[in-house]
């Protein structure tokens, strides 16, 4: 699947949430988000024939906390979902670091080929970034209106994540393991 299709599949549910919230409020927005993220995971599986770990975890949280939001008619649950997801990702990365395992290498190893030191540094940086996102989400939902929180979720978290990812390029380039050239076939004339 090309990167534009992947971006559409991953960002589409968030866009649907934003549009539905702006037109019909947080409850309808949450319901639309739940449906859109379920479709997103299914489409991703259909094209790649594998279940992407982080989007599935995110979808599980959306379904759980979105379901609580709709069932209890309380938007608190959908608002704390990003905090809890980011705390979970940070905790997993920090725990893996302490036990000398590298979860990030397991998740991204097919995309990046880094030295062990590079993977460790990248994992710690992402763990701290996830803590920052959790803290920012808490500040925003506690101090601003629901619409302002939705705007932050759509136009704040995604750009911050893309910017943080881009800022990791020097580390990735510095710790990238060069690919070995394919072995040359020796031709033997008989």
Automatic annotation (TrEMBL):
InterPro entries (alphabetical): YciB
Keywords (A to Z) from UniProt: Cell inner membrane, Cell membrane, Membrane, Transmembrane, Transmembrane helix
Transmembrane annotation, as ranges: 24-47, 53-72, 123-140, 152-173
Membrane topology (UniProt): Multi-pass membrane protein
NCBIfam families: ispZ, PRK00259.1-1
Family: Belongs to the YciB family.
Function noted in UniProt: Plays a role in cell envelope biogenesis, maintenance of cell envelope integrity and membrane homeostasis.
Protein's name in the database: Inner membrane-spanning protein YciB
Organism taxonomic ancestry: Bacteria, Pseudomonadati, Pseudomonadota, Alphaproteobacteria, Rhodospirillales
